[in-house]
Amino acid sequence: MAVLLALPAWLALGLLAGPQLRVTSGLWPWASLLLVQPVVEELVFRGLLQGQALSLLVRRGSPIKLGPLTLANVLVTAAFVALHLRAQPLAWALAVAVPSLVFGHLRERFNSVWPAVALHMLYNAGFGFTAWLVRA
Predict the structure, then answer these.
(1) Helical H segments across the chain, by residue range
(2) 11: alpha, beta or left, given left = phi > 0 and alpha = psi -120 to 50?
(3) pLDDT tens profile 64-104
(4) How many CB atoms lie within 10 A of CB 34?
(5) Average confidence (pLDDT) over 100-116
(6) Quick check: 121 pLDDT over 70?
(7) How far is it, in rounded angstroms, from Cα 115 to Cα 123?
(8) Above 80 in pLDDT, residue 112?
(9) How far apart, in whole angstroms, are the C-alpha atoms of residue 91 and residue 17?
(10) Domain span holding position 34
(11) What does pTM read for this prediction?
(12) CA-CA distance, 11 to 109, in Å (whole number)?
């Protein structure tokens, strides 16, 4: 379901932010985009930061929720978007908010970062391919 929802997002971002996108070229940049960044970002953001936030932001033994989301997930997502603002245009950086919430949900549901890492790799492949398509 999360993958199917990504397809229209990639299309919209390609159309709206296409000229501003950075295109990945060469083996190392693609390896970084598809392997290194998802593993490092998920270990830091979902593993370390969200793990700590989940243990600190508790009320009566349960994580504080904002509707269906935990406060920990929302705060980590805000930090994740801010990190992407350094390297991407605003629309592209904001586009990582929904996937980040999905990654955070997976981390909480499975009590592991690895499902989020796998989905993050797939999302990055879609973003990278979209950037390549609109700039090619």
Answers:
(1) 2-17, 27-31, 37-41, 51-56, 71-85, 90-94, 97-110, 114-135
(2) alpha
(3) 999 999 999 999 999 999 998 988 778 778 888 989 999 99
(4) 17
(5) 96
(6) yes
(7) 12
(8) yes
(9) 7
(10) 27-135
(11) 0.83
(12) 29
Indicate whether 73 belongs to any domain.
yes
Percent pLDDT > 70 in the chain is: 89
Residue 98 within a domain: yes
The span from the CA of 105 to the CA of 54, in Å, is 12
- Number of structural domains, the chain? 1
Q: Rounded to a whole number, what is the distance in angstroms from the first to the last CA of the chain?
A: 29
Are 77 and 20 in contact by the 8 Å Cβ rule? The answer is: no
Left, alpha or beta for 49 (phi > 0: left; psi -120 to 50: alpha)?
alpha
Three-state DSSP class for residue 64: coil
